[in-house]
């Protein structure tokens, strides 16, 4: 693997703790550590050097280089993935040393910078156009800053934010635009506040379709459906007319799955079905957080929970395939929780009813957590899933797990190069099948009602 060390499994960490070194020792591989400062590296050496695992410390300099590698991620890698990450890290460091070498030469050798150019370009990528609908609403207000400052597309990608709301909200929308300008963000190329679909959907690369009537206390999803589905018919047509065919769409506005189905139907022919998705990432995050609380580990130590089906109270939050990193060991969440009654009862209902509980307490629907989940959803779609990890995303069914083709159904997915794939071959027991059948039935009924509301007798 280029380092001349025997390697069965490798632990890579941004820091060195007794836990990560004992994990490397347990797995019999070397511990590779990228430290963010000299002091941390010395401490790391002292800690990790106590075990039998070989230790390789990479010596970067403070704030010069940033590795997006965390311990839970590292621990989930197979040897091949670990080897490629190691090569990546070493190549970054070689570039860093070359850059420092160039800086020294420039200082002491006249005209050398014309002969030896610096290897790190500082330019940002050309701006992408990102639409947020319902941008004057509460999720909109929470999400626009996160998109504008690089939480979704990274610190080197400029974005032009296009904010859409209804004409009645033009003035507050203008206020949001002014605040974004005042944030003075290097990643924000421009902000457009608009009230027509023609302006909003023109040439966009990504769409966060949030704008809709929110669910109020005691309101049934069926009432919402009739009110909201027509908005998504109109936006589907606008996508077909004005957007780039490569545009990627996240529907947040409820009923999210069925709204996405309708938007996709009316954008067909221009925007492919696989570019549409609806948000169940909030439910996914809620499920992971509940597992973390129950097991007593940080939430980043929980992976592969699944939300099956609809973003509604029939969704099935499933931990049968989830993993938990506990005391340095990756174990099954079911085993770590060891409480079937809880997993088949309170756990499911807590996640299913969380939205309603928040409405009851705040008198408003979830906004901060919904905005964060939408950021997570598109960021994962943009950068891909980590090795060994899957996330929940409502996408068009291809018939997997017996779900009728074309329904926008939440599945476990992996993402590579901007393309999602439904995780195949997971074992579904009788209990899970019953839950999946119930949420499928609800989505089929919603589809019938939605098509009717759009003036279509059948699909
Ligand atoms: N999928 C999820 O996990 C999830 C979670 C939370 C909320 N939601 C849903 O997200 C939606 C927005 O929630 P919110 O709390 O921000 O509501 P909000 O009422 O605060 O904001 C909605 C905004 O959408 C605007 N709007 C309405 N129709 C529009 C249209 N045709 N075009 C553009 N904008 C339009 C409204 O004027 C308003 O500013 C709701 O449908 C809510 O139920 C989904």
TrEMBL record:
Domain of life: Eukaryota
Keywords on record: NAD, Oxidoreductase
Residues annotated as domain Lactate/malate dehydrogenase C-terminal: 280-450
Ranges where the Lactate/malate dehydrogenase N-terminal domain occurs: 129-268
Gene3D superfamilies: Lactate dehydrogenase/glycoside hydrolase, family 4, C-terminal, NAD(P)-binding Rossmann-like Domain
GO biological processes: malate metabolic process
PROSITE patterns, sorted: MDH (PS00068)
InterPro entries tied to this protein: Lactate/malate_DH_C (IPR022383), Lactate/malate_DH_N (IPR001236), Lactate_DH/Glyco_Ohase_4_C (IPR015955), Malate_DH_AS (IPR001252), Malate_DH_NAD-dep_euk (IPR011274), Malate_DH_type2 (IPR010945), NAD(P)-bd_dom_sf (IPR036291)
CDD domains found in the cross-reference section: MDH_cytoplasmic_cytosolic
Any GO MF annotation of the entry: L-malate dehydrogenase (NAD+) activity
Protein family according to the UniProt entry: Belongs to the LDH/MDH superfamily. MDH type 2 family.
Name of protein: Malate dehydrogenase, cytoplasmic
Organism: Panagrellus redivivus
């Amino acid at each position: 693997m280029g380092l001349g060390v025997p390697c069965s499994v490798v632990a890579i960490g941004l820091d060195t703790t007794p836990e990560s070194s004992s994990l490397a020792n347990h797995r019999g591989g070397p511990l590779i550590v990228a430290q963010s400062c000299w002091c941390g590296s010395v401490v790391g050496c002292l800690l990790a050097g106590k075990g039998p695992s070989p230790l390789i410390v990479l010596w970067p300099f403070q704030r010069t280089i940033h590795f997006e590698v965390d311990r839970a991620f590292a621990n989930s890698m197979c040897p091949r993935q670990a080897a490629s990450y190691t090569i990546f890290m070493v190549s970054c460091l070689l570039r860093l040393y070359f850059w420092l070498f160039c800086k020294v030469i420039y200082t002491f050798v006249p005209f050398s910078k014309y002969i030896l150019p610096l290897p790190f370009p500082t330019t940002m990528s050309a701006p992408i156009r990102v639409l947020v609908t319902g941008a004057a609403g509460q999720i909109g207000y929470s999400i626009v800053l996160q998109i504008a400052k690089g939480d979704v597309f990274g610190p080197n990608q400029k974005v032009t934010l296009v904010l859409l709301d209804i004409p009645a909200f033009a003035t507050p929308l203008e206020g949001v635009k002014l605040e974004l300008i005042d944030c003075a963000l290097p990643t924000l190329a421009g902000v457009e506040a608009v009230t027509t679909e023609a302006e909003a959907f023109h040439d966009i690369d990504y769409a966060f379709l949030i704008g809709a009537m929110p669910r109020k206390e005691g309101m049934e999803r069926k009432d919402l459906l009739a009110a909201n589905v027509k908005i998504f018919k109109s936006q589907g047509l606008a996508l077909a007319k004005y957007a780039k065919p490569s545009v990627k769409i996240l529907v947040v506005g409820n009923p999210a799955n069925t709204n996405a189905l309708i938007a996709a139907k009316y954008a067909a022919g221009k925007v492919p079905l696989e570019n549409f998705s609806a948000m169940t990432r909030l439910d996914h995050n809620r499920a992971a957080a509940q597992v973390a609380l129950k097991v007593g580990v940080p939430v980043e130590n929980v992976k592969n929970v699944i939300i099956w089906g609809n973003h509604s109270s029939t969704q099935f939050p499933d931990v049968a395939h989830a993993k938990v990193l506990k005391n340095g060991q990756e174990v099954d969440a079911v085993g770590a929780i060891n409480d079937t009654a809880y997993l088949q009862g309170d756990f499911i209902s807590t996640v299913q009813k969380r939205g309603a509980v928040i409405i009851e307490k705040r008198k408003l629907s979830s906004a901060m957590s919904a905005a964060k989940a939408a950021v997570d959803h598109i960021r994962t779609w943009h950068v891909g899933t980590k090795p060994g990890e899957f996330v929940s995303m409502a996408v068009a069914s291809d018939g997997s797990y017996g779900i009728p083709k074309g329904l926008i159904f939440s599945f476990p997915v992996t993402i590579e190069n901007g393309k999602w794939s439904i995780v195949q071959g997971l074992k579904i027991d009788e209990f899970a099948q019953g839950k999946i059948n119930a949420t499928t039935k609800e989505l089929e009924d919603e589809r019938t009602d939605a098509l009717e509301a759009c003036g279509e007798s059948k699909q």
